[in-house]
Amino acid sequence: MATFTERMALVSVLWLALCLSGSWAVDKSNFKTCDQSSFCKRQRALKPGESPYRVLLETMELTNTRLTLQLINDNNKVRLLLELYRLQGNITRVKINELKPLKPRYEVPDVLVREPPTEPLSVLSQDENGVVLSLGAESQRVIISARPFRLDIMEGHDVLMSLNSRGLLAFEHLRMRKDTFSYKVTSTVASVWDNIKRVFSSQAEPEAENKEGADSANQAEAGKEEEEKVEEGMWEETFKSHSDSKPNGPCAISLDFSLPGVEHVYGIPEHAEPLKLKTTDNGDPYRLYNLDVFQYELYNPMALYGAVPVMLAHNTKRTTGIFWLNAAETWVDISSNTAGKTVFGKMLDYVQGSSETPQTDVRWISESGIIDVFLMLGPTPKDVFSQYASLTGTQAFPPLSSLAYHQCRWNYNDQEDVRSVDAGFDEHDIPYDFIWLDIEHTDGKRYFTWDPHKFATPKEMLQGLQEKKRKMVAIVDPHIKVDNNYKIHNEIRSRGFYIKNKDGGDYEGWCWPGSAGYPDFTRADMRAWWASMFAYDQYEGTMENLYTWNDMNEPSVFNGPEVTMHKDAVHGSWEHRDVHNLYGLYVQMATAEGLIQRSGGVERPFVLTRAFFAGSQRYGAVWTGDNAAEWDHLKISIPMCLSLGLVGISFCGADVGGFFKSPSSELLVRWYQTGAYQPFFRAHAHLDTPRREPWLFGPENAALIREAVRQRYTFLPYWYQLFYQAYRTGEPVMRPLWVEYPQDPATFAVDDEFLIGRDLLVHPVTDEGSRGVTAYLPGKDEFWFDIHTFHKHNGAQNLYIPVTMSSIPVFQRGGSIIPRKLRVRRSSTCMEHDPYTLFVALNARRTAEGELYIDDGHTFNYEKKEFIHRRFSFANNVLSSVNLMPDAHFTTMSWIERVIVLGATKPSKITLKTADGEESQLEFEFDPSMSVLTIRKPGMNAGEDWNITFK
Ligand SMILES: *[C@@H]1O[C@H](CO)[C@@H](O)[C@H](O)[C@H]1NC(C)=O
Ligand SMILES: *[C@@H]1O[C@H](CO)[C@@H](O)[C@H](O)[C@H]1NC(C)=O
User: Fold this and answer.
1) Distance of alpha carbon 601 from its chain centroid, rounded?
2) What is the pLDDT of residue 338?
3) In this predicted model, which residue has the larger pLDDT, 19 or 612?
4) Which of 90, 135, 141, 731 to mutate to test the pocket of ligand 1 (most atoms within 8 A of CB)?
5) Contact call for residues 519 and 478 (beta carbons, < 8 A)
6) Which of 940, 947, 949 to mutate for ligand 2's pocket (most ligand atoms within 8 Å of CB)?
7) What 8-state DSSP symbol labels residue 208?
8) Which member of 367, 738, 780, 831 has the lowest number of beta carbons within 10 Å of its beta carbon?
9) Does residue 89's CB lie within 6 angstroms of at least one atom of ligand 1?
10) Is the CB of 381 under 6 A from ligand 1?
11) For atom 4 of ligand 1, which residue has the closest CA?
């Protein structure tokens, strides 16, 4: 019989063999379907119908801001406690838990930025059928019906959202196991159980029972009265060779939401799916369970590396959102009464007057925890973004340089390799800011170390990059090599910081270093210790231009169930089951904190993560994981990042070129052209792929790639300002068209083009051999100017754009002003003091507006108001720059070297008036064929007030 270690070694060999074999596509059998996940199967077997839950109206209590009432399940007499809060900014929070669970159920910590501020609730009316509450000034009301329990949110006569209207509320109460025959209580499980009971019994005794409550005085008793069916998978479950001991038995929860009038729902990333979510009646629900999916397949609802349990619903009248705060494995079903109906069918309904209102129904199912759901009522998309931001925070404001181009591969082999790649970029005149090192740079996959031969003098290497104003990212993964000669391992073990297995020992799994332990990042003391490891004297060989990348933090466990951790692993008093989807967030949180601390709180961190959850936007960037060099993977990068942006995570990118396999030169060029217009712009490649630095594809392709990267650099001032805005407001940087054109149904499913901010529309070429693309230009009153040719196009049309290999169809909205820096240098930092060119694109009313944000680009001093934030506007033939933040201060050496007005008419003279009162006449050129006016060298400082008058 093989020993444990031998078995693990075998698994690892098999895994690697799979890695290296040419066979493409995910091995789906490694991952559960809903049917193979016992709680999903159980819950999904419940069909819509009359809910067994009824409201005990006499238990209702209303304090100023909190309504509570009990629900009883008439089948088993188990009671639930419902809490309802009205939160500031049109958010209603509904929590449902067991009234008296056998022990506490997990409530997700650390995701909300604070306890959300509440607003007063008041009862409008009440009778034996239910209660009506007012949600404040607008005519918004909550109607709670008693028999069966149902909750509707209304505004005027419109139902915005209904909960349990299909009767799918299900709450598996905690229970004692009755059939003990196959249940072996190990000493550890018993002691964990005792601990948990102690924690629970130390809590205040629930208040005295009221009259009806006394009938079923004890929850557990109530549970026992009923003949409970013990179904397969309730108390233990196996998947492939992995067994899940389920010491707490069944504890799943589920609830349905109906969205009348809604045909479009979005969000719940991460899935390799189109922007508009599909109905799931004929397949599996969308799954949210952070997994390292090897060679993921497109266009299916399988879980991927990250999970954000937030869905947006949109129609021409309103946008709303549902935030289901639960970190356990979760499945989301979507159905629609219009799905499958063709436009013709819908027309026929309309003509015949038989049309029911369109409606989307969704149902969330989670394995454990409680129901804690935030209903974000909009009404506009931007209201929903700010509502969600008020709960989970906004995008971390990144260092400016991290918005530039990143060069990565697994791996740059040694310092000489790094040096020569760096030199190659200069030789071929392609800018870049960051070069990346994957796992091979370490001493035997021991993170926080360097390979002593290949990277013998890391500081020298970093110093060399520093001299060119460039930076490096090195990987630090959360699996720690079990090795008594490795300081990090010894410290974590001796401090008791590892996650425990179900038997109480340190959990060990197989990952890159071989046998590895997994630090318990859910512990604040563990995270503080981890953060301290990034100090320059702890993490030897590092300096301030080294940043960090957290990979494999789902966590990936090669020999674990579904390539991740056993659900019965133990984090203090919780099971891994409860916290799984949070693990990656905590890893990135602790790492970002480490980078902040090493600089004494001065410098902004940059940390990339593969796994994420709601709130991860506060800690850095994400990417879409291990994609492939295929055209469809290039295409899917657009909806994948758009979906992330909708749920707060703006700093998103896909591996340029594709991670697995080798791109053709055409695909590589198209990918650079697309990536140059996506938020996180990094090329990356698998260890086994041939090298693909841009110049290896011949001078023509190198020139095309150079041009794409240079375009990115010219737009950095715009990207930076948008990230500042995302940090302030939670608005996505990369946006679906419908966010800006919410009343135009033609935009609702568009995901082959996108907006950057409000003012740039991008329709990248993502088809092989393409001769042209058809872009939808939204807005019936808009003009769109081709940024390359300055051609003007009208909005509300499908525009066919012929393309060549050098084409990147990008349009600037008429009515906008975009500052750019056209003197591209070898890194963004080298361009710090360079002058700006203002691109002023006029709309039909001959007005335009834009913003400029400038600060030092890398510190937290913006929090001390050390920045410039200006508004440019053009109206009545005056272009002016005004200070949006008069109490902020920063000085810049940058000046305005050029103003280009698109859609202009010819003036007879142009005068500049600066803040010191001086007036001067400016020289200009006018191209009547294109209506383009160019003012050369007006020379104002970018941080000052001025007016330019066109006469
Ligand atoms: C709340 O909703 C009302 C009505 O739909 C809307 O007028 C108001 O602007 C919203 N407020 C916020 C803060 O979103
Ligand atoms: C620009 O024009 C506005 C509006 O007339 C005026 O308030 C402002 O003082 C002017 N700024 C300068 C620098 O002349």
Assistant:
1) 25
2) 80
3) 612
4) 90
5) yes
6) 947
7) P
8) 780
9) yes
10) no
11) 138
Ligand whose nearest atom lies closest to the CA of 919 = 2
Q: So what's the pLDDT on residue 187?
A: 42
* Mean pLDDT for the stretch of residues 619-625: 98
> What ranges do the domains of the chain cover?
34-171+249-392, 400-739, 832-951
Q: Which atom of ligand 1 is nearest to the CA of 138?
A: 4
Continuous segment of H or E residues that includes residue 773: strand 772-777
CATH number of 34-171+249-392: 2.60.40.1760
Starting from the CA of residue 948, give the closest ligand.
2
- Cα 946 to ligand 2 centroid, rounded to whole Å: 7
CA distance 715 to 740: 20
CA distances from 814 to 283, 779, 838, 850, 934 (A): 44, 11, 14, 11, 17
Q: Is the Cβ–Cβ distance between 796 and 777 less than 8 Å? A: yes
631-646 vs 665-675: helix crossing angle, rounded to 10: 10
Exposure letters 465-483 (e unless 16+ CB within 10 A, then b): bbebbbbbbbbbbbbbbbb
Domains 34-171+249-392 and 832-951 share a fold: yes
CATH of range 400-739; options 3.40.50.10170, 3.20.20.80, 3.30.470.30, 3.40.50.150: 3.20.20.80
Torsion of CA 684, 688, 689, 694, to 10 degrees: 50
Ligand 2 near 911 CB (within 6 A): no
CATH superfamily of 832-951: Golgi alpha-mannosidase II (2.60.40.1180)
Distance CA 808, CA 70 (A): 59
Q: How far is the CA of 914 from the centre of ligand 2 (A)?
A: 9
pLDDT in tens, 564-573: 999 999 999 9
Q: Taking a C-beta distance cutoff of 8 angstroms, is the pair 573, 586 a contact?
A: no
* Contact present, 94 and 107 (Cβ < 8 Å): no
CA of 871 to the centre of ligand 2 (A): 13
Which residue's C-alpha comes closest to atom 3 of ligand 1? 138
